């Protein structure tokens, strides 16, 4: 085998290996804070994809500042885009059912997620969000980006104390 062929073969193996690894999700090392179920292709605990905070922090992080009905001034939210969370589990489906720690449940159209840049915040004003202050995860829309988003429809979809997502 020529060195060129060997190099090409090694490159193909490396590409295939990285593709396999990209389709796996490590098991959480810390306490599970989010579980994702339903129409997902990548799982790490039975039929679920579960995340600890370190796994959430390892996803690409984004921030925006927006006014909300829950705070008296604009607040900076930071965390992964909800679309990045769904991409990590290779989600499909048209509706995302989100459930909070207190079992509040809301449906979010998957179209909303990319169209509006919906964030799964883990920080408010650069600080972790305690459970008693709507944490540790808070789904939030960039309300200041559009008058359409400043309505009860989108406020209700901004679920705090998020614990589970189910793709339907």
Provide keyphrases for this structure.
168 residues, alpha+beta, 5-stranded mixed sheet, 4-stranded antiparallel sheet, globular, disordered N terminus
Measured as a percent range, the helix fraction is 25-40%
**Rg over C-alpha atoms, rounded to the nearest angstrom:** 18 Å
Determine the mean pLDDT.
89
Shape: globular
Ends apart, CA distance between termini: 50 Å
How are strands sequenced across the largest beta sheet? 2-1-11-5-6
Helix and strand content put the structural class at: alpha+beta
Q: How many helices?
A: 5
Biggest sheet layout: 5 strands, mixed
**Could you list the spans in which at least 5 consecutive residues all have pLDDT below 50?**
2-22
Total strand count, please? 11
Topology as a string of helices (H) and strands (E): HEEHEEHEEHEEEEHE
């Amino acid at each position: 085998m020529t060195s060129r062929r060997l190099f090409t073969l090694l490159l193909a193996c490396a590409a295939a290996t990285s593709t396999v690894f990209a389709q796996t999700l490590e098991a959480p090392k810390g306490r599970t804070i989010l579980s994702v179920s339903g129409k997902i292709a990548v799982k790490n605990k039975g039929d679920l994809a579960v995340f600890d905070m370190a796994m959430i922090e390892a996803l690409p992080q984004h921030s925006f500042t927006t006014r909300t009905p829950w705070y008296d001034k604009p607040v900076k939210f930071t965390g992964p885009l909800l679309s990045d969370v769904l991409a990590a589990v290779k989600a499909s489906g048209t509706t995302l059912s989100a459930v909070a720690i207190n079992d509040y449940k809301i449906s979010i159209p998957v179209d909303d997620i990319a169209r509006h840049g919906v964030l799964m915040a883990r920080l408010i004003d650069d600080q972790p969000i305690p459970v008693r202050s709507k944490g540790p995860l808070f789904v939030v829309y960039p309300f200041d980006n559009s008058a359409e988003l400043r309505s009860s429809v989108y406020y209700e979809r901004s679920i705090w104390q998020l614990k589970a997502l189910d793709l339907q």
